[in-house]
Structures are given as C-alpha cells and as structure tokens.
Amino acid sequence: MSFFKKCLISxxxxxxxxxxxxxxxPADVSGELGIEPTxxxxxLLHTDSIADQLALAYSTKxxxxxxxxxxxxxxDSQHPSCLYLYSPTPIFSKTPPKTKIEMQFTALFHTHRAQxxxxxxxxxxxxxxxxxxxxxKPGFSDLIVDVASPSWLRKLFIVLFLGRDNFVSxxxxxxxxxxxxxxxxxxxIARKLLRVAATHFQRxxxxxxxxxxxxxxxxxxxxIGSNSVKLAMxxxxxxxxxxxxxxxxxxxxxxxxxxxxxxxxxxRFANRILTPIWNxxxxxxxxxxxxxxxxxxxxxxxIIYVPCHRSHMDYLLxxxxxxxxxxxxxxxxxxxxxxFWPAGPIFRRAGAFFLRRSFAGNKVYTAVFREYLELLFxxxxxxxxxxxxxxxxxxxxxxxxxxxxxxxxxxxxxxxxRPVSxxxxxxGYENVMEVxxxxxxxKGKSKKKESPLQVLGAIKKLRNxxxxxxxxxxxxxxxxFLDQHAPEWxxxxxxxxxxxxxxxxxxxxxxxxxNIMLEINKSAALNGMAMVSLCLLASKTMTxxxxxxxxxxxxxxxxxxxLPFSDTMSIxxxxxxxxxxxxxxxxxxEVKKDKYGSLVSPFAGKAVALTYYRNxxxxxxxxxxxxxxxxxSKNGCEKSHIMTTVKTIYPLLRNELFIYFTLEEAxxxxxxxxxxxxxxxxxxxxxxxxxxxxxxTPHFHSAWLLSRVMQDTWQRYAVVLTVLGSxxxxxxxxxxxxxxxxAERLSNLYGVSSPEFSDKNVFAMLVNSLRENDLLESDxxxxxxxxxxxxxxxxLVNEIVWPEIVQHLxxx
Length: 812
Description:
By secondary structure, this protein is of the alpha/beta class. Strands 9, 10, 11, 12, 13, 14, 15 and 16 form an eight-stranded mixed β-sheet that branches. Strands 1, 2, 5, 6, 7 and 8 form a six-stranded mixed β-sheet that branches. A three-stranded antiparallel β-sheet has the order 17-19-18. The longest helix has 27 residues, at about 605-635.
C-alpha cells in the first residue's frame, strides 16, 4: 500500500465510519464459510476503492477477522492484505486501468515454492452500496446507483447517499496452497484464478442485486406480443364477436392489473421503517438454513419461494429476511383483494404482482398471467407465492392449490435457460395479530374485506408479539424432480395452446405440491407459545402450575434435541423456564398466584385461540403422542402392539398433518422414539411390556400430557368410523354431514376447544385418506362401507379414545 493511500485511509477512517453501516453476509462467516480467523487471510475485492476497503475493515473488526488495512506478514516477506480485480474508472474515461493483481498472485505462488507449508486463505468479498438493479434506460438518478467500478467522484455520491445500505458479502475461502499445487507455471495459475474470480463476482452481483429492470413498454411488448396471448385474443374475437382493438385493450389492462412495478428505493426505505417496527413488536426473528438458498443463488438458480401462510405479516417478514440474507428480493404473488389504496400501489412497487382468485373462462387473462410469470422466470427474477392460496385459519397447513405450480412447471417446459429450484419456507410466530378474527371466522362470521381502515386498525394494535421464526426448507430442484416423476416432461409440447395439457402434468404437479407441503412441515420451529399452548390444551382443566409447564417443556426439548424430527427443524436455544417466562410476559395467558406458586390458564373464552399455536407444531408430536397414548390406555403394552398400531394409523396422520416420513421411516422413528422416551423416564420397560412411569416421578405428568396431545384427532377418527359402522351404506356427503353433527355434539359435551374438530374440510380430507389407503369400500350406488382393514382400525382407535367418548358414540 502506497504512503499516499495510507494517509488517505487514516484521514477518511472516522468520517466514513460515521456515514457507513456495513451489513455482513452471512452473519456467521466462520460457521457457514469455514473461514478461520487465526490463519492468514488475503481479501480479494472487485474494485480498488478506499471506501470498500474501509467498509470491509469495519466488518472484519466486528467479526474478529484480520484487518484488511494491515499487510499479511509471512516468515521472510509480507503481502498486501487486499487485492483488487479492477481499478476504478477514471472520471474522463470509460476504460479503467489494469491492476497489478496478476503479478501479485504470481509473487504469492513464488513464495509457496520456497515455503511449501505456507497456507493463506484467499477470501473473495463482494461489497455493494444499495441494491438497485440496472435499468435498460439509465436516468439522472442513477448517479448514486452502485456500478461495477465507479470513479472516485461517483463513489463519493454513493457513500454519501447509500452508506447506511452497505453490504459486505463474504464467500468461501480458496487455499493458496491448493492453488499453488495446480499444474502449470505460477503466472498461468494466477490467470486461471482471476478468470474464476471474475465469474464469481459477476454471479455475486446478480445474486445480490438481480437482473436489469424491464421498462413498462418493453414488458407490454414482450407479453402482449407473445404467441399464446395472440392466440387467446384471436379466440376471443372469433367466439365472442369482440373487436380486435378491444381484445388487445383488455389484454393491456389485464397486464397493468397484474404486473409489479419494482422500485428498489421503496424497498430500501421499507427496510429502514421495518427494522424499528420488528424491534418493537418482536423479541427477535430467528432464521435457519439460509446458507442453502445462498448456495443456489451463487450457482445461478432461478429461486421460487413457497412459504406457508399464517398472517399478512408473512409478506413483509419473508421479504425482509431475504433482503438481509443478501438475496434478491422476490416478486410476490398477492391476491387481488390486497390491491386497494394505499396498500396496493405500495405492494406493487415492493415487487407484488396481483392475481385473481379464479381464472375460469377468461383465456386472455390466463394467457397474459402465464406469459408474465414466464417472463419473470426467464429474466432471472426470483418469485414468491403461497401454495395454500390463503391464510390458514386453524394453524395447520391447508391442502395445496396447484394453479401457480402448474404454471411454473409449464413455463419450465418452454425452456427457462437456467436451473429452477423451489424453496419451501416455514413461518411461525408466537403471536399472530389476526388470530382473534380467525376464531370468529371459524365460528361462522364472514371474512372482512381488506380496506385502509383495516390496515390502520392493525397498525394501531401493533405490540409485543414475541418471537418470529423463519426456516428455509430443503430446496427442490425442479428439473431433477420432473426427471424422477415425469421422465417424458422434456418432450416438446404445444405450450402456446392453453387448452392442451400433457398427461403427465397434473399427477406431477400434485406430487410436487405434496412434496412442498411435507418440506414446509419438515422445517417446523418449536417455540415457547406453541409448546405452552400444547401443554395447557392437553391438560384436563386447561390450568397448570408454572412448574409443571416448565418440567413438561424441558422433557419435550430433551426429546427433540436427542431425536430431531428432521435436519431442517429448529429447536430454541433457551431453557424451559426462560421460554415460559417469555411467553407469560406477552400477557396472552392468565396467571394467578397462590402460596404454592403460579397457576397458568387461558383467559376466559380464549382457549380456542391457543389451538392455532399448538397446531403449528402438532405434527412433531403425533408419533410420540400415539406411542404414549397406547401405553397409558392399556396401562402397559408390548412394543409389537405399538408398531402394529403405528403401521395402521400413520398413513392417515401423514395425509392430514403433512408428515414427511415414509411408512418405513415412521416405523424406524417410532422405534427410536420409544428408546428415547424410556431413556428420559417418560416410559418404563417392565418385562415384555412398556408401562407408564410411576405417578410419583417428576416425568409422569409430561408423559400423561403427551398421551393426550392428539386426542382430538383420535376422536374425529372414531366419529367417522362409528358412523360408517352403524350404517350398512352411506353416501360420502351424508357421512361428512353426520360426522360433523356428532363432532359438534361432542365438542359441546366435553369442551373440545379445537376449531378444526368439526371442520368440513378436515373431515373431507379424512374421508379421502380412508379411501386412498383402502380403508373404505364403495358399492355400485356409491355408498361407503367399512371393510376388514377399517374395522381393525376402528378397534385400534377405540383403544386410545377416552372411554366416555367411546360409550357416547355407541349410544348415538
């Protein structure tokens, strides 16, 4: 480093420190990238810039990495700690001069010849100011948009205006020793490294900033001028006797209604606004498994995010997290009901594109939407849509709607020029702002239409909502999935004709949708509110001492730490008492104190709301609960009986709760679970039988609660099987109606709090599962009957349903 540059860095260190706030990506560079702070590091930067070097210095100081301002000292020599691919562009020229990097790398490899044991980490670092994508038609405002190698004057404006939006993105290090051992002379190796680095930085820029924005005119020309839209317009003119000009006008209006109008400045402004809001209403946002998504972006994948849908907050939270994880913010599919003033224009500029609830009968609209979606994919924009279609009112995953997935698959068959990966996302909250309205809707109240007043009312109610959780699931590479499930997908199809669908499309899309839902639930997050709700709802009186809750949660945390449900689920790092105290601090539960301690219960009439949080994680407890329910119901049973019951009941659980285990994996997990429950003292081996723990042991109450967690589900199974058993033949509609009536009666008699206990959609899903698993037979008239398999299932279910419920069902 020259003397002049050293003086300039010393002079500018504190002024720039005031202006710049670097955001480090990823936050844990050692854990995710394997960078070792104790080993020598040379940082490889894109451009020779004092501002970039100082931003890197602020970041490395916070991370505990070697400073880029000091040289790397070796035994007999020293090397600069920062190397640069490019020089800044001169003010009066468009061609930047070459750097000395090739000579510097060659010298470094020469040093390796003399010191074979030397190993330096070469860490590529891409530094960007703001995240504004390039425009096809640049304007005056682009003066402060960061470009590849800006001049020092332009950099001055960039730092002044975008210093608080500085991103320092680290990449996995390259071993200098490994490079020095490559074939060829040192100069050739250096040139090869530089070529790889140039490609790497280009991908990093694409991954952070995204593709060039489309001008509105170009967008309209590309979509309305496509063959499929022209065919749809011609069909409209021919069949509806519409003038060609009117058909074209309609197509343009549809595109204006649909298309996003992304503005990076609004996203940057929203980030400034949202950060203090998150800090106000949430105790923190936990993010897991983002490294896999960054890896996809580095490898040039088209990324499609498919999250579960709990709340309107999902739109903001997922985009916010994606932005801070150093990924391109996606274009978001939003329901047309959200396109009202002022929310609609804001969402549109934040990347939302709007779709109608139904495309039926409107070929022009369908063609325009499909072409727009395909254009987003082909231009490299990431996309986000909700496979459930709408927000879950019960806390469970809803059956997926496959329209958007089918369009995605069809777009791929038309030739997207890069790999496509679907990323399932689990979102969970300790409190959902809409939960009270969900309860009202489940009781029959009509859904309120979104409006400005509703938005203002929601903002007014913002308060402490505990912790938020966002877990990225295992990505599904679409081409590999289709190769496995529909090998003929790559054959040419007539993609311009919307009426023609290849035979493989529907089954492949249905299978893909099912896999997505399984991956979402596979990536669930245990949290304090969900576990406290689970415990209270499983207790007889829905009242427990704080000590009992803490003991139970501690036992369940131990179970999942020893036997994780999956490698993408997340388990809180806090202790059980800390989790319970955090939940009670939210003031969503009633706490009464007596001389023996604190008693915790739902507020009067609010127990139903707790089922929402319990249902977020109930699939994690399904098999442990079934095991303990069998042991408690018979006061002890043999392991073989447990395995037989799981083999019979699990296929129904898998369909209803979207559990990702195959039957063989579920049986393996059951065996491991029995072993772990015994190791924790939640079950006891007594001779050949597994029995409940003694009531005098501290683990008895935890095991007893666990046996009751799934009771609502077993009762619902018993209701359907009882109706079938008491009729010689019953139509599907009558079966579902009669089952719901009995479920409502049981709910009133025994205080069942689950809103989905008598929900028609849940009963419909159960009947489907019974048919798919050959547990029902139908005669020529379509009437349904029990068969030998379902009779055996009925007997097993009656073992674990409370005796008073079984008796009541028999009387009915």
